Amino acid sequence: MIHSTRTAASADASISKETSSTFKRRFMVRLVAVFIGGMFLDGYILGIIGPVTGPMRSDLQLDSLSLGMIAAGPLAGIFVGAPLAGWATDKFGRKPMFLVDMGLFLLASAAQFFVASGDGAVVQLAIIRFLMGVAIGGEYSIGGPLLSEFSPPKLRGRLLGLTLIAWYVGFMMAFIIGTLLHDAGTPWRLVIGTSTILALVLFLARFGLPESPSWLITKGRREEALAIARRYVESPQMHHSITEEIDLRRIQEAQAAQGRTKIKSASVGMLFSRQHWRATLFTSGFWFCAVTPYFAIATFADDVLNHFGFGGGWAGGVGLSALATAGVVTTVLLIDKLGRRILTVPGQWLCAGILLIIGLWGNAPAILVLVLFLAFSYFNAGYTTLTQVYPAEVFPGHLRGIGMGFAAAFSRIGAALGTFALPWAISNIGMGPSMVAAAAVALLGAVLSQWLAPETKGRTLAEISANFSH
């Protein structure tokens, strides 16, 4: 009897410990960390190519077309992986897909060590990095919804924005590490394969994470959702948000039972329905216009700055990435205070003007051009932070994965286009017209955001998606 009493007391203590505020805060830190790690990897694999393009070009006898294909491979992979993983995460759940996705990245990253020399090396490397891009695309459409669905409304913007800080830090660290390893004589295969180490750590860290309550609600599993919320969620705002989602789901089920509506499974077609086209147009178009100029300029920073009279290297890659990181940090610090819209719209108008000046002022002083590029990097990164926030907020729960996946995929058309086309454009139409074209893309984004960008600060996910869908 005494033993039974002690056992019961021990079980109660264990349950209390696993539902304490400390336990819930540690879980939130862990969730943020593993998603941030995935975004760090995204930036890292895209940035690591830059410092080793020289030895790769020499070893594999690459022309500009082949180099562009390898550099754009991950971006093309994201185009495929983001909507595919978005559909899968809305159908099968955030939890299993979050682990499977990093497993794919780990295998593809490790394969870079074994790229052969010879005629087939270019195709082999392009395929490997394409698969890495598929996995990274999954990070957007799985991790973004998962994090937003566990984040309290008053911190959601900041936490989602932190993921883009990780992206820029990853891009910058790749340039630093890649340059140091290259200068030390490290083979380029080992340099680009360094992403495998972090991929292994993140793969192991993702075991044991819970399923999203919001996803469970979309599948009618309300009791499981409430149980997970009680165990892992500390914020009263989040508990209220989950209750709102349950009530909304009950209304939808009641309407379906009366034959007034039909609850449909997530599909790409639903993104263009009367209820959701605005969210799809805004998130996809805004993201496309934000990243296209940045990827083109940052990936080939050495060539761009050399054209304007500056040596590349540390001043180019690290300087632009450092200013970009500072821009994201500024936005993250202000987003839950000032709101989303004020940090989205003005910066796009400013960046369009900066690129237009660079493109039209052909004989501008070199130091002024450098300052303008650094300013562009800072302000562009500031509003690009919102590309990680808006898609995770404006879509309803049953479309959040595929909606964010579609927006990420569409944005990567622009990123791949910028990365692939800029070397050709510089060679064939000149640097000035290339910068004017980039300015036109930024201007299109400014017009679109001026029209459609909503204010979502402090609102629950259920409230945002309901308001933006009408």
TrEMBL record:
SUPFAM superfamilies: MFS general substrate transporter. It is found in: Cell membrane. Its main location: membrane. GO terms for cellular component: plasma membrane. It holds the Pfam family Sugar_tr. The chain crosses the membrane at residues 27-52, 64-85, 97-115, 121-147, 159-182, 188-209, 279-301, 313-335, 402-426, 432-453. GO terms for molecular function: carbohydrate:proton symporter activity. The keyword Ribosomal protein does not apply. InterPro entries: MFS_dom (IPR020846), MFS_sugar_transport-like (IPR005828), MFS_Sugar_Transporters (IPR050360), MFS_trans_sf (IPR036259), Sugar_transporter_CS (IPR005829). The keyword Transmembrane helix applies. Residues 31-457 form the Major facilitator superfamily (MFS) profile domain. It is a multi-pass membrane protein. It comes from the Bacteria. Keywords: Membrane, Transmembrane, Transmembrane helix. Belongs to the major facilitator superfamily. Sugar transporter (TC 2.A.1.1) family. This is Major facilitator transporter. It comes from Sinomonas atrocyanea.
